[in-house]
């Protein structure tokens, strides 16, 4: 009779678990992480440094406003004009799902050929995954945007929505979301960065229910009449990129509505 | 991240958490990927993430441990799923004979076991978590965990030549 607990204990007894404990601790607190796997990033770092010099001054005007709205609730992070979100996560899904390859396009005729789903649930069923929803999303029409396949298997896909709130007029504000993911078939790992070059500061809001952090920031190209906010979060290896438009709203109301929206996300 | 976040880290608490859970996280990752070198790398990645998210925690309680397990689970899965890994692993294994003398029967058999069973088995048989707790951590239904445990145990027994 095999006693698995004993087998595990035996396995760990033969491992020198503590061998690198001190070294790893020093690496972390001294900020000297191992660099062996970092060479892939060096070129990106160089390119982005140049971008930083160009964009360094942009968006600073929004910093105070952002802090005023969210500062007391969240962690505020200075990013000096450039934000980059890197994902190394891969979604486990039905890699053979019926999703034709599609390129992003602004041509309406081509866009019309992209697949349409009437609800997040329908999309989730088609992909063999679960997708976050909210009771606030009264309109869940979602369209395929980009799909890349490798050897016939889905490697990357992205979807976009209409206004999720079904608002009757623009005055009521709008919420959109782009949903995207990579799978294990994605050919170049660590290449799924989203670079927001026009925001100078973000706040991080921890969504307790989901045990994940939402990154909230304000692009600098907003129009005078509207307040546009972007929220990026990753959950279960799927990235959600919200765009939220408020019209003439008090900062405190915006904060409450945004937080309420984030807290309402669920399967 | 290209730009480092401003870090205001409670070093004392981080050290306490690190000392308390380092071995747990090491064992957990090893039991999934069964490779010492990669385990060391991933343990560092997990605790680096903790270091950058210390603002989430006020003490070294069970919630921290569960958070660390979740991060470790994602890092380990990503490691095994990475394109680079999949294409390099064959070459590495061809170049160097695995040090089988260092491996226990369990480690050897875990490598042969489908990886989806490894985490559930570790949580249940080593950490002593209930099916409900494992389901919550792994975000799988309780019946899904039961199935993984049953099938994983059967396959392990078969591999280890037990009854």
Structure report:
The complex is a heterodimer of chains A (267) and B (163). Chain A has 267 residues and is of the alpha+beta class. Chain A has one domain (58-263). Helices cover 27% and strands 27% of the residues of chain A. Chain A has 7 helices and 11 strands. In chain A, the strands form 2 sheets. Chain A has a 9-stranded antiparallel sheet. In chain A, a hairpin with a 2-residue loop joins strand 10 (226-235) and strand 11 (238-247). Residues 32-63 of chain A have low confidence and may be disordered. Chain B is mostly helical and 163 residues long. Chain B folds into 2 domains: 10-96, Rna Polymerase Sigma Factor, Chain: A; 103-163, Arc Repressor Mutant, subunit A (Orthogonal Bundle). Chain B has 8 helices and no strands. Chain B has helices at residues 11-33, 36-52, 62-81, 83-95, 105-112, 115-127, 131-138, 142-160. In chain B, helix 1 packs across helix 6 and helix 6 crosses helix 8 (142-160). Chain B starts with 10 loop residues before the first helix and ends with a helix. Chains A and B meet through helix 1, helix 2, helix 3 and strand 1 of A and helix 1, helix 2, helix 3, helix 4 and helix 5 of B.
Strand content of chain A: 25-35%
Largest sheet of chain A: 9 strands, antiparallel
Proportion of residues in helical segments of chain A = 25-40%
Q: Could you tell me the number of beta strands of chain B?
A: 0
The run of helices and strands of chain A is: HHHHEEHEHEEEEEEEEH
Indicate the mean pLDDT of chain A.
72
CATH class of the largest domain in chain B: Mainly Alpha
Span of the ends, CA to CA of chain A:
41 Å
């Amino acid at each position: 009779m095999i006693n698995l607990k004993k087998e595990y204990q035996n396995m760990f007894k033969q491992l020198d678990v503590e061998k690198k404990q001190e070294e790893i601790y020093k690496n972390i607190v001294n900020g000297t992480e191992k660099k062996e796997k970092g060479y892939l990033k060096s070129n990106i770092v160089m390119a982005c440094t140049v971008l930083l010099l160009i964009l360094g001054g942009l968006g600073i005007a929004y910093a105070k406003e952002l802090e005023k709205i969210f500062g007391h609730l969240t962690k505020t992070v200075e990013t000096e004009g450039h934000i980059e979100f890197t994902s190394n996560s891969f979604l486990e899904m039905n890699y053979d799902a019926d999703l034709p390859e599609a390129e992003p396009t602004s041509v309406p005729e081509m866009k019309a050929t992209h697949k349409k789903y009437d609800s997040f649930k329908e999309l989730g069923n088609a992909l063999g995954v679960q997708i976050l929803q909210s009771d606030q999303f009264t309109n869940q029409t979602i369209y395929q945007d980009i799909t890349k396949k490798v050897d016939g298997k889905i490697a990357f896909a992205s979807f976009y929505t209409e206004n999720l709130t079904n608002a009757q007029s623009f005055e009521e504000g709008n919420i959109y979301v782009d949903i995207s993911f990579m799978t294990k078939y994605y050919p170049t790992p660590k290449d799924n960065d989203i670079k927001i070059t026009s925001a100078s500061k973000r706040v991080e809001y921890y969504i307790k229910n989901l045990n994940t952090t939402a990154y909230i920031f304000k692009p600098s190209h907003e129009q005078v009449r509207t307040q546009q906010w972007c929220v990026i979060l990753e959950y279960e290896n799927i990235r959600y990129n919200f765009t939220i438009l408020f019209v003439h709203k008090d900062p405190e109301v915006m904060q409450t509505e945004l937080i309420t929206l984030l807290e309402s996300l669920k399967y | 991240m290209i730009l480092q976040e401003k870090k205001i880290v409670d070093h004392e608490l981080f050290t306490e958490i690190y000392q308390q859970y380092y071995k747990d996280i090491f064992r957990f990752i090893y039991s999934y990927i069964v490779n010492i070198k990669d385990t060391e790398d991933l343990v560092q990645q997990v605790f680096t993430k903790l270091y950058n998210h210390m603002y989430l925690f006020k003490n070294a309680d069970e919630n921290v441990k569960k958070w660390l397990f979740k991060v470790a689970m994602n890092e380990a899965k990503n490691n095994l799923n990475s394109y680079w890994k999949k294409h390099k692993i064959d070459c590495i294994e061809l170049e160097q004979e695995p040090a089988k003398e260092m491996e226990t029967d369990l480690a050897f058999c875990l490598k042969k076991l489908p990886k989806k069973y490894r985490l559930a088995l570790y949580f249940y048989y080593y950490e002593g978590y209930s099916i409900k707790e494992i389901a919550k951590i792994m975000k799988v239904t309780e019946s899904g965990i039961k199935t993984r445990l049953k099938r994983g145990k059967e396959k392990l027994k078969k591999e280890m030549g037990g009854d």
